[in-house]
Structures are given as C-alpha cells and as structure tokens.
Amino acid sequence: MNLIESLKRKKFLLFNIFFTLYIGINLIGGERGLISYLDKKRTYVFLEEKENELTAELKKLEHKIFLINKNDPDYLDILYRQKFNFVTEDEIIIKLK
Questions:
Q1: What are 26-57's pLDDT values in tens digits?
Q2: Burial readout 2-11 (b: 16 or more C-beta within 10 A, e: otherwise)
Q3: Torsional sign, CA 4, 8, 10, 15
Q4: Which residue in 2, 15, 23, 67 has its CB near the most CB atoms, within 10 A?
Q5: What's the pTM?
C-alpha cells in the first residue's frame, strides 16, 4: 500500500523522468535521430561528389561526340591514329594515359 500511495503522490515526477528518457533515446537513436542524421549526411556528401564526377565525365563525352558529329578531320585523324597505331616516319605520337 505504501508503494502505491507514493507512486500516486510522485506520478508527475515519474512521468517527467520517463518522458525525458523517451525523448533522449529517440533524439540520439531511431530513424530520425542524430546517428541516422550523420549517416544520411555522409551518404549525401558521397553522392554529391559522385554526381560531380559523373557530370564532368558526361561533359567530356558530349564534347567528343560534338567533335565527331561535326566531322572535325583533326579529331577523327587523332582517333584513327590511336586506334590503328598508324604513324609515318616523320611524325612523333605521344600517348597519354
């Protein structure tokens, strides 16, 4: 009986303690907590870097496609020489990798 009476008198204090613990645990953990936020932020930064790399690569490819579609003889000549290793005696080809 003493336990029940003391709980009735201190129910507001107990409610505040449990409510504070509940909020604290969900603030740190959980789907929308601090740990999840940091993980999602790291993933977001990684994906932004990946997007920048792919955008740069796409621009390079679009430029190459533009040169081919324009039928630029110099660019097409470079491609043929690289592909078939065709060099005359008075030319020097520097290969870049």
A1: 888 878 888 889 999 999 999 999 999 999 99
A2: eeeeeeeeee
A3: positive
A4: 67
A5: 0.53
Which token pair is 64?
A: 């190459």
Supply the angle between the helices 11-28 and 2-9 in degrees, to the nearest 10.
Answer: 70
Q: At which residue do the structure tokens 């955008």 appear?
A: 55
Residue type at 5 in one-letter notation: E
93 pLDDT tier (thresholds 50, 70, 90): low
**Residue reference for tokens 């579609």:** 69
Q: What are the C-alpha distances in Å from 48 to residues 36, 44, 52, 63? A: 18, 6, 6, 23
